[in-house]
Amino acid sequence: MASTTSDTAVADTKPFDIVATYNELLRSDADLTMPIAAIEALVLLLTHSASSTISETLDLLEKSTAHLKRSIPNPIGLSAGTDLFQRYLITTLQRPGQLGPAGDFKAIRTHLLSNGRLFIRRAKESRDKIAAFGRGFIRDGSTILTNGGSRAVAALLQKAADEEGGPSAVRFRVIYVLSSTSQESKHPNEEPEGMETVRALRAKGVPVSTIPESAVAYSLGKADMVIVGAEGVVENGGIVSRMGTYQIGLLAKAIGKPFYVVAESHKFVRLYPLGQYDLPIEQQVVEFKSEEDLAEERKQQSSVADTNGDTPIKLPLCDSVDFTPPHLISALITDSGVLTPSAVSEELIKIWF
Amino acid sequence: MNRKLGLRRCVGRLWHHFFFHKMVEPSNPAPTAPVSPPVSSTPEQATLATENPPQTLPIRDSKPTQPTGDAPASTDGATDKPLTAAELKKKAKADKAARRIRQKLEREGNTTGSTAPTPSVGAQPRQPNTPKKDAAGTGSAQKGPRAPPPRRGSGPVAQTGSVLVEQKKKKDDKKVAVFGHLYGQQRRVTVGGATKEVHPAILALGMQLVDYTICGSSARCVATLLAFKRVIESYTTPMGTSLARHLTTHLSSQITYLSTCRPLSISQGNAIRALKLFIAGIDPSTPEASAKISLCEYIDSFIREKITVADQVIADSAAQKVQDGDVIVTFAGSSIVKHTLLLAHNQGKRFRVSIIDSRPLFEGKSLARDLANSGLDVQYSLVHSITHAVKDATKVFLGAHAMTSNGGLYSRVGTALVAISPTASPSTASSSTRLPMPTSSYPWTPPVSLAVPTPDTHAPPAPENKKGGNRTPAPESPVIPHKTSSSPLADWHNTPNLQLLNIMYDVTPAEYVDMVITEMGSLPPSAVPIVHRMVTNL
């Protein structure tokens, strides 16, 4: 039974490529976060597949999730979404009643799909909710240091700028830390992440200063607080975020500035990293090379024309992440309220049990 | 940095603790056997007195000059001159009392463990200071400035001086007064005197608990449940009562017997509570046979769900945390840590294990043997070489006896030391536990305390003598003396100035625990109360 279902599942997924769908979704909608894109891809998968039993559906879901996670270099963010969706499916299916295991599967399926879409819509709205919660943190005359290209942070800052009632009333300033790694990447002409937000804020009359990452310690004295985004919020209340966030957190702690994280609650991941090197991804950050190694690498690059085998995909430096431990975080501003890091595990337990 | 400071503060407070009770001498070379060497400890106490003026000052508001005059006096240990007239007057009674006790004690060559004047036995010249300082330490709340110096039961002794009380003292004085609350009731060492209701299976279990044949929180829990199963199987409801009503009381007498053998572990307590709840829920109209069957099934499923399967789940998720090249440090012998490491090894991970072991039970030996037999790379060291063992540790795995509701890790004594040590290096401590079961009635001590006062914290010092093997039960004493005369502790009951303290558990503060691996997933220690709430609500 199990083998036949898996066979059909594989046969079904062939025309529908979940990885391509996921990437396409992310590309098409700039407002989409990774977990939401993953959920949307899974919902699309379910609409495309013709599964007719619960176990078939779950099996298909599990296989596609595993496939998706394998194919994406940094699956931390999307795993929050896939886990959430899977959990949601299972709890819905276990619930007694018309939609329970005894009910009509067709009805269950349509219910799942419609609810999945509802979930996506709600998740998109959560950014506004966060902005509403976080607005109180930005006071008159304050200076905020931020980094990366987090849309939640951008939404929060823009909301704060709007709320003050037009350009004349804006009374906060922003120090924007621009990543230098993205400039070193393949596209040297590409503007660093976050420039869009910088432009938008400047258009609203918010004075913005852009600094390189090396100037964070120097500039922190002028900032009143640090607000950063996150790719994933892990179980102990720490965050997985753009490379460089950890050092900002450390510096903020050392200088005594509050360090706030803005993240949607669907970014909570059931992951418990114990340190920087305990993340479930491969990153090429610290690499020791001698001249010999470099020469060999060059030779290999010229001879082998990118044969991407089954080896785990390594994350390029510009997309690398680090882990900011919970003791550096003052509070997490989420759509379910402002939480302390220790409250994250409670929220996660609530979702999972 | 913070942790280091915290540790220092904690040590400082412990010192303070010792100083005021003057029972355990800080300079003691053997931590489990606080033989009091009063002379060597004197300077240390004096320095402490000068170091902690804020703590000594408020008590002596009536005589502002004292704290400074006091310390030197005890340092050179030869003068009682610097005392003011007021103080001399205040201490008149105390001196008399203390002197009387001292004379008696000298005659008998014995120390009074639970009375203040004890340390004065060896250091007569500084004796007048001793009770005064003691009054400062203990009399803050109830005694006031004119407090009579000797604390607790020593007053009546001094006044009556009767031989009767003296003998009672002799019996008590083998207890270290600071930890007096840990001793609890006397341990049973034979089956003699057990009530007739106690089932033979329970009698046997009790003896196994007494001599640590069954040791470890889950082993004790499983053994207890299995013994209860036999009790239930051979149980017949007496006429005129129902099973639901009577079986609980029948079990209670078994439990009482067990708890006199060794205080019940928290896991046992939780299992018993669950079982009693189930019994209470049995419909009185159920036929006895079917009720017994359902009870036995309940016990089986309890063991399966809460222990066997939970162990597997925990070992599974803990093994995921083991990575190639890790150096895993563990302390003593936890069955769940053993499962984890074996599982990780079977998964083909290459890592090294460093086992730190210590008294009282040397449980790490069997763990080291088992792991080495399975082909793991094992290093075994005792706790005194902890800095070396911990130096290149990458992770610390600790088994938990229980988790306290503030996230503290309650485990075999020495665990706190291991958990605190790696903070110098960027390693992580994680503990794996099942059923994090803090109890609301838990008697909390300040977080600095590494020894929490629960009844089971103190075990009779028997295991220390274990290597002598030849143990014979001695009904009168909590200690099992052994006959080999080679041990310096062979005749400790009659050795003057010798008190034994054999603490079995300690509590690691939550900040030293990075992760708690439970069957409900990995959690930060701060989530322990949440899990507890969920588990009890289910």
UniProtKB/TrEMBL annotation, chain A:
The keyword Protein biosynthesis applies. Keywords: Cytoplasm, Initiation factor, Protein biosynthesis. Pfam families: IF-2B. Signal peptide: none annotated. One of its GO terms (molecular function) is guanyl-nucleotide exchange factor activity. One of its GO terms (cellular component) is cytosol. It comes from the Eukaryota. It is found in: Cytoplasm, Cytosol. Belongs to the eIF-2B alpha/beta/delta subunits family. Component of the translation initiation factor 2B (eIF2B) complex which is a heterodecamer of two sets of five different subunits: alpha, beta, gamma, delta and epsilon. Subunits alpha, beta and delta comprise a regulatory subcomplex and subunits epsilon and gamma comprise a catalytic subcomplex. Within the complex, the hexameric regulatory complex resides at the center, with the two heterodimeric catalytic subcomplexes bound on opposite sides. This is Translation initiation factor eIF2B subunit alpha.
TrEMBL record, chain B:
This is Translation initiation factor eIF2B subunit delta. Residues 94-109 have a biased composition (Basic and acidic residues). SUPFAM superfamilies: NagB/RpiA/CoA transferase-like. InterPro entries: IF-2B-related (IPR000649), IF_2B-like_C (IPR042529), NagB/RpiA_transferase-like (IPR037171). Pfam families: IF-2B. GO terms for cellular component: cytosol. Keywords: Cytoplasm, Initiation factor, Protein biosynthesis. Belongs to the eIF-2B alpha/beta/delta subunits family. Residues 25-170, 446-491 are annotated as: Disordered. Residues 44-54 have a biased composition (Polar residues). It comes from Penicillium desertorum.
